[in-house]
Amino acid sequence: MIHGAYCVGCCWMLMALLFVGGVMNILWVAGLTVLVAGEKMLPNGRWLPKVSGTALILWGLSETLM
């Protein structure tokens, strides 16, 4: 119970995103799975969240400015 509550508390946004993405398109879920797996499993994976986060922010900004 404690581990489950901790997991939901720290990852609720990712869980919600995976649910919504999975309902809409399974390729988005596969892409997010590869991204999270890369962050966790790559030996020097600390750069991946920074690069992917920056890319997603820039993509979001470009969509709002168009």
SSE diagram, text form:
Blueprint: H1 2-24, H2 26-41, H3 47-65
Helix pairs in contact: 1-2
Determine the strand fraction and express it as a percent band: under 5%
Low-confidence stretches: none
Write down the overall geometry.
Answer: globular
Number of helices: 3
Give the overall pLDDT as a whole number.
Answer: 85
Along the chain, the helix and strand elements come as HHH
Instruction: Please bin the fraction of helical residues.
Output: over 70%
Largest sheet: none
- Overall structural domain count: 1
**Count of extended strands:** 0
Based on secondary structure, the structural category is mainly alpha
What does this structure look like?
The structure is a single chain. The termini are far apart. The chain has helices at 2-24, 26-41, 47-65. It has one domain (2-65). The protein is mainly α and 66 residues long.
